[in-house]
Amino acid sequence: MNEVNKTLFIPLYGKSLVSRKQILLKDPYAEKTWEAEKFPIRGKSGSKWLAYNMAMRARIFDDWTDGMIRQHPGALVLHIGCGLDSRCKRIKEHPAQWIDCDFPDVIAARKEYYEESDWYSMRELNLADPEQVRALPARDTVIVILEGISMYLTGEELRSAFRTLQEKYGEVHVLMDIYTVFGAKASKYKNPINDVGVTVVYGIDDVPALLAGLRIQFKEEHSLTPPQLVNELPGFDRVFFKMLFTGKMYRKIYRLVELAG
Predict the structure, then answer these.
(1) In terms of Cα–Cα distance, which of 240, 103, 253, 75 is closest to 171?
(2) Euclidean distance between CA atoms 120 and 142, whole angstroms
(3) What is the pLDDT of residues 1-45, one digit of tens each?
(4) What are phi and psi of 118, to 5 degrees?
(5) Integer angstrom CA distances of residue 38 from 45, 98, 102
(6) CA-CA distance, 116 to 99, in Å (whole number)?
(7) Quick one: which H or E segment has residue 121?
(8) Spatial separation of the C-alpha atoms in residues 251 and 261, rounded to whole Å
(9) Residue 242 phi, psi (nearest 5)
């Protein structure tokens, strides 16, 4: 795998660690996959604080996805940049169709752990390639999960992807985490992805400006550290986690936005 693809092991480790602790996220698939892969995690990537952060983010995406499926039971769910994540197994609602998408070497690794079914499939996809996006299955409504992927695409690549999605689907719903411009610059010096060799990422300060002229528009911002999930952490860990991740500085670096159109 290249450096960007190797970043998938950071959240996989975090989710497996938290699942073993039986807090925030129940994810036996992450535990099993991590044990089998045994990717060498080092430096900041092995921090339990980052593990909490990754698992909390995953839980927020899970809950949002369940809510979207309940509202749009006939929708296609696209998990783009799925890595080795088991969201397709963790969700409570049953989607009409779910496709986990990633680069070819990731999908090849994923097929060692997951089997396709009448509603679930895996697909090689580069979101920056409009032709690959146009070739996705047709549905009236699409639910798009972009977790840990936007920072590897330029603003124009993201805008082009959203333009192609809105041309293909009548209704588009997106949840996407983003670095701010400051966060992208700061990540050059202090970011767990540096531990696997990634040095170039991109940030967005003005989401509405990125989407100007598109049907898909900014809907709302979500908290990456909602109090009800922070409170699931054990005593001292909860206090220290609040110090690290719930202050104003964290939002200046990293945000979670919902788009719709």
Answers:
(1) 75
(2) 15
(3) 444 556 778 888 889 989 999 999 999 999 999 889 777 666 555
(4) -70, -20
(5) 14, 28, 21
(6) 9
(7) strand 120-124
(8) 25
(9) -60, -40
User: Across-strand partners of 120?
Assistant: 98
- Pick the more confident residue, 82 or 49: 82
pTM for this prediction: 0.92
* Residues facing 222 on adjacent strands: 256
Element (H, E) at 100: strand 97-102
Poorest-pLDDT segment among 50-54, 71-75, 85-89: 50-54
**DSSP secondary structure letters along 184-216:** HHHTTTS-GGGGGT-----B-S-HHHHTTTSS-
Please name each of the domains of the chain with its CATH number. 59-260 (3.40.50.150)
List the strands of the sheet with 97-102, edge to edge.
120-124, 97-102, 76-80, 141-146, 171-179, 254-260, 217-222
